[in-house]
Predict the structure.
Amino acid sequence: MQKPDIGRRTVLLGLAGLLTLPRSTYATPAQADAAIAKLLAAVKASTGRVTLRLPQIAENGNTVQFSVAVDSPMTDTDYVKTVHVMAEENPAPEVASFYFTPANGKAEATMRMRLAKTQVVRAVAVMSDGSVFECRQEVKVTIGGCGG
């Protein structure tokens, strides 16, 4: 029996076919929790001090403006170190991380993001003393911005 002649083109076409197989493209809230846990180790987040401003309804998920601010004196001993923004059901939940120092004077940032579909967006602030604060807000997306 003769072995089939498998050429380079056949192998490449087969690999291309594998890459186009349907797969889940959205993260889950549990994956967002895991991403936050990886960033924060075992620290539990409290509510308060973080303000997340998003539209309640985003007509186009391709460009959704958001602002995040943390109430902090921003002194050498009490300041915001980092703010992480997560979109729970985007293909990758990590949206942005902002790093601050006392020299910033304020812990505020504004940016745009893509949202795949209606979901919860979370902002998690890590303070200089190790405490963590979180804010969540749902955004209804009428036209998804991540291929949806």
Q: What stands out?
A: The chain has a mean pLDDT of 83. Residues 116 and 148 are 6 Å apart (CA to CA).
